[in-house]
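Sharing in case it's useful to others searching the archive later.

Someone asked me privately for the predicted structure of DUF1553 domain-containing protein, so I'm posting the question and my answer publicly. Question first, with the sequence:
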Amino acid sequence: MILLVGGMGMGMAAEASVDAEGVVFFEEKIRPVLVEYCYDCHSAGAKKVKGNLLLDTKAGWERGGDSGEASLVPGDAGASLLIRSLAHAEGADLQMPPKKKLPERVIADFVTWVEMGAPDPRTGVAGEVKRADKSWWSLQPLKAVTEVAGNVVEGSGVIDGLVEKGLREKGLAMNGAAGARELIRRMSYDVTGLPPTMEEVREFESAFAKDEERSVVRLVDRLLASPHYGERWGRHWLDVVRFGESRGFERNLIHDQLWLFRDYVIGSINEDKPFNQFMVEHLAGDVVGKDDPKVEIGTAFLTSGPYDDVGNQDALAQAVIRSDTLDDMVTATGSAFLGLTVNCARCHHHKFDPIPTEDYYRIKSAFEGVQHGTRTLATAEEKRRFEAVTKPLEGRKGELGKEKLALQTAIVERAKLLPKVEATRPVASAQLTEEKFEPVRAGMLRFTVLGTSATVTSGVNGRVDEFEVWSSGKDSRNVALAANGGKVEGAAGRVAEDFDGAYGVQRVNDGKYGVRWIIGSPAVLVVKFAKPELIERVTFSHDRLAGKDEPVPGLGPSVVEYELEVSEDEGKTWKRVADSLDRKALNEEMARARTLRLGSTKEELERLRELDGELAEVQSKLSAVAPLPVAWAGKFSQPDKPTVVFRGGDVSKPGEVVKPSSLAVLDAVTKGYELPVEAKEGERRLALAKWMVDDGNPLTARVLANRVWHYHFGIGLVDTPGDFGFLGSLPTHPELLDWLALRLQHHGWKLKGLHRDILLSRTYRQSAKWDEKASKVDSASRLLWRFPPRRLGAEEVRDTVLLVAGRLDVKMGGPGFRLYDYKNDNVSTYVPREVVGPETYRRAVYHQNARASVVDVLSEFDFPDTAFAAPKRANTTTPMQALVMMNHSFAMDMAKAFAERVKAEFGGDDGGDVEGQIRGAFAVCFQREPRDDEISAARELWQEHGAVALCRALLNTNELIYLE
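And my answer, the predicted C-alpha cells:
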C-alpha cells in the first residue's frame, strides 16, 4: 500500500492509464526493494538526500539527481542510469547500494520493469514515508462535510453524494435500485442475521410497488426493532472484543458464567444504549454502575480474553505471565476502541505509529489493579439480605472453629507426654501398598481413608486405581474383584462432566490399573464379597503402572493414612484388622493428626465429633442459602507499586516510573488526562474510558463508524477495521468516514440512527448487478458502483438451515448450548459432537464458544478463533464446507426435518401433493416461486430419490447462502 504525506487518498490505486499487470509487478518486485535499500538515502524522509535524487515518487526518478539525467529511460534498461548504478557497472557515476551489490535476480527484476516501460503508480508529488507522525490522517480532528452535490448535507443523501463524487472521478456511476425481494433479503440478513419469510417478502413486494420509499422506511424500522437485531450485531461486537468462554492456554478451563456478558451485549444493542456509555461500562462498569449487575458485567470485557492460569512457581515467570496478561487488555482496548496497535510499543517505540514506549505503559497503568477471577454481581439490597442470613452463621462457624482448635491444641500438648508409638514401616506406597493380618472370616471389609499425600484431614481427592482383598490359603484369590462377585460402595470426589463415570468407585475393583477412583467424602470404601471368605491380605495402589514408590506427579494424591475393618454380620459390628499407625508419618502435619487420634480421651473424641457435627450443620445451613450471582468479570484492587517502563519489554529490567495518562500523540486534538502515580485503581480505568469516548477524540468515533459500515457492506471504508495506523489501509472515502463519525455523535452515539442513514441510502439499496466495464476500473467494488454481494457468515448459515428445517428455537438469553463434549481433568478437552439434539437448535450466537473448540458448520464457515479479536472475518471456500453440508449428521437431520415440514405445510390433506411441496420448499428456502425448469428437475429428483434428497439438495445451493 502506498502511503503519502499530505493526502489520504493519494496513491490508493494506479491511474487508469497504468497497465494493471505492470503495477502488480512493481508492487511485488520493485517497491519492496526501493523501501528497504534506497529510501534511507533517496526519499523525502531521509535525513540527507544523497545526490538530490528521490526514488520515492515517479516524479523523483523522472527528474533525476545532480547529474541532470533522468534515472530511468522507460523501455530501455541499457540507457538507464539507475540500472547501471544497481549493476555497479564500470564508469557508472553511482553504485547503489554503495557497499553491497544487490542480488542478480533483483537487478534482473529492475531490468524487466524498465523494459516494461517502468510502470509506477506513485503519482503523488510528496515523498513516500516509512512511518506515521502526528500529521497522520486518523489522528486529525473530524471534519464536517459542508458541501455535497445537490446541496444535501443531512441524512442518507450525504452518503450518496459523497459516493457519487468518488465514482464520477473514475468515470463510474451507481447501479440502479435493487428489486424488492433482493432488498428485503439483504436487509433482513444484514440487520437480524435471519431470512425473511415468504409472506414477509410478498407483503413487502406489494408495498414496494405502491410506495417504494415508505415501504423501505417501514421495513428498516421493523427490522431495527426486532430482538434479533441485538443477536446479529451483538455477535459482531463479540468478535471485536475477542470474546471467548474458556481460558485458553494449557488448561483451557471453561467459563460457565460468561453468557452474562454475551446477554449484556445483546441487550445493550437492542435497547440502543449509547455506545460511548457502552464502552465506558466495558472498562469501568463497576465504577459507574456500582451494585448494578446489568452494568457491572460490562467489565468482563477486560477478562474475557485468553488467560494463563497454570500457576508457575518461578517469580520471574510469574512476572512475565502477569505482564502478558495486562498486555492482552492493552491490545484489546487499543484495537477495539482506538483502532491502534498500541501493544507494538511494549518493547520499543512503535516502529510505524507515533506511540512511544512510555505511552504503552501509561495506558497499561490503567489495568494494573485488574485480576482475573469471579466477582459477585448483585444489587446492594441483594447483598444486604444475603449478609443478614449468612453473617450470623459465619460468626457461629468461627466460634466452633476456635473451640475445636483450642481442644486439639490441648490434646496435642498432653499427648507429648505419652509413650510414642514406634513407626517402623515405610510410608504407604503410591505404586503398591500391602497389609497382612491374621486370617479372619468376613463378608464385608471397610477401608477408611484418614489421610492422603495432599491432606491430613480426609481422603477427598485421593486416588486408588485398584483395591484387592485376598483370600487365605494356597489358592489365594482376589475376592473383591468384580469378576469374582465383589461389590463396592463409596463416594466419588469428582464427577467430570461427560466422562461417563470415569472416576467412579466402580473403577476400584475392575481389574484395570491406571484408571482411578477419585475418593469422595466420606472417604470410605465398603467391599461386599459374594459369600463369606477367610481373608488375610489387602493390597491397593495409586498407580500400579508407575514403577516407583512415591506419588506420581500430575496424577493426584495417594492414600497414606488408613484403617481396615471387617464384618461378619452385614455391617452391624466391625473389627479392626490393620491400620497405618506403625508406618512413618508422611510429614509433621500428618504426625499431628495421628497424635490427635491417639491422644484424645473418650470425652474429647466425643466433643470433637460433636463440634464436627455442629460445624457440618452450620455449613449445611450456609450451603442452603442461595448464593449471590458471580461472573468471570474481574476483581479489582489498588496496585501495590507504581507502573514502570520495562526496558525492551523485559520485566527484569525496570526503568522509569510513569503516570496513568492518555496517548500523547492526541494531546493536540483532544483533551488528554494525567493522574498521580498513586491514583485510585477505578479512577484510572474511568479516566481512560472517558478520554476514549470524548467527542473530541477522532479515533474512537471513526473506528466505530467504520465498523458499522464494514458490517453493512462486507468491507469498511478502511478495510483494516482494527488498525487505523500506518500499516492499516487508507480510507477510500475519507470525507464520508468523517461524516459518519460525526453523524454517530449527532445520534448521541446510538447505532440505530446511523443504521437508518446507511440502510436508506441509494448506495446501500442499489443492485449488486455485475458490470464488466466498471469492474475493469474497480473490480472489488470499493468505490461502490454496485452493492458488494456476500456469502452468509457461519452463524447465518447454521441458523438459516435450522430455520428452513422448521427446527430453530428462537429462545433468547441464558446459558449457552454446546456442540462439543467437554472433558476436564486439570486440562480441558473439547471433542466435537457427531450427533446433536434439539437442545442445540438455538441461534448460533448462544453457542458456548470455548477456545480451541471445533464445531461442524461454524468452524468450516470461518467462525473465528476466539483466542484473538476478529475485527474482520476470513471468507474462504473449502472442500470441507461442501462435505459438512452434504454429509454431517446435522445436515442429514435437517434435510429430514425440512422434508417433514414441507409435507406437513404444503402436501395437502393427504400429504401427497408433490408439486405443492416443491413450490413450498422453494418458498421456504429462497422466498420465491420456482421456475418451470426447476419444478421439472425437482420432480425428477424427488421421483428417483425421494423428498429428503430434494431437501438436502436445496440446503446445498449457492442461492441459500449467498446474498446480493
